[in-house]
Amino acid sequence: MIKELLKRSEKLVRQIIYDSFSRLSVRSRKLSVLYYFLFDRSFDREIQAVLAGKIQHIDEAKKTKNNYFLLIRNTHRIEKGLLMKPRRDLFGKEYITETIDSFEAIWNLGKDDKANPQIKWFYDVLNEYFSTINLSHPVIATEEARFKRIINEMPSTAFKTQTAKSIPYHRAKQPVNNVNYAQFYDLCKQRRSVRWFLDKPVPRELIDNAILAANQAPSACNRQPFEFRIFDDPEMVKKVVQLPMGTSGYGHSIPVMIVLVGNLDAYFDERDRHVIYIDASLASMSFMLALESMDLSSCSINWPDIEARESKMHSFLNLKPYQRPIMCMGIGYPDPDGLIAYSEKRPLHQIRKYN
């Protein structure tokens, strides 16, 4: 009896200290950091992953000089310079050397990879850049010579003869899609979280089609720091469906399970640590709408940042230290006899403010 009272008293004292320090800590960033260091280690995995991604990015940029994410970002930066009005005579000198460093390594590995249109994009944008930029600056002149040497080692490459270039273009010259707002709004309303699916295989071709649509979603500097991990083997689905929370009542109905994974090695600085979630979410919405257009449905499944579950998912997916699960998703053909939640949405006046 006395031991039990002591335990309760100790727990009460700890709770009082915990509550008091948490209220004190919220007044200061430094105290907030101390609070999480002393009382709550929830951010430990994220901190380590962000740092691991930063180190990986720096090593690939400066040591091995074959950073694919850096090349994507810098190619996009050059594109933005090319489309400016008016276009400057000189830009990009601060990062063109590291760009050509990574281009050389990636070009030599992937110049014959016809399945990767980004290789052509790298070539076309850099070629346009050096064709229009002021070459009087010594850095620009040096890197232009390097670029020519790199591409001239493969004079037969098809990229040089293709007339359609992957460079900035006039939007007005492109065909306009005839989907009107009412049709699009209906598609958005049609998309709801479906938890009951038919016992029917989902063709991989349709999943790939949806990913191709998702691939057109906007992404910061075009880096697309995410991967779709897809499981359609029934035994694998049974395992992965148990990893998130809230699937126990309907998980057995899911024929295909997807885990979206973020790659923190896409960034050189902690300032971009949230972009994996933003970009992956943008892509996920396009993916789900694309599924609806092909008579498939989906259920977004929250991924809780709980260490025990993080550890299991990390092991199951064999993730790198800089990779993080972002969300899960069940997809399949919807069961017409299954109910879906009405889920009335917040009214317009609650979710928007002008100026």
Largest sheet properties = 4 strands, antiparallel
| Shape summary | globular
| Second-tier CATH architecture of the largest domain | 3-Layer(aba) Sandwich
Strand order in space, largest sheet: 1-2-4-3
Low-confidence stretches: none
CATH topology grouping of the largest domain: NADH Oxidase
The fraction of residues assigned to DSSP E strands is: 5-15%
- Terminal CA distance reads 63 Å
Fraction of residues in helix: 40-55%
Helix-strand pattern, N to C? Answer: HHHHHHHHHEHEHEHEH
Number of strands: 4
CATH superfamily of the largest domain: NADH Oxidase
The mean pLDDT is 93
Query: Which structural class best describes the helix and strand composition?
Result: alpha+beta
- The total of helices stands at 13
Provide the domain count.
Answer: 3
Structure, explained:
The protein is an alpha+beta fold and 355 residues long. The protein folds into 3 domains: 2-40; 47-155, no CATH class; 181-332, NADH Oxidase (3-Layer(aba) Sandwich), CATH 3.40.109. It has 13 helices and 4 strands. It has a 4-stranded antiparallel β-sheet, with helices on both faces.
List keywords for this structure.
NADH Oxidase, 355 residues, alpha+beta, 8% strand
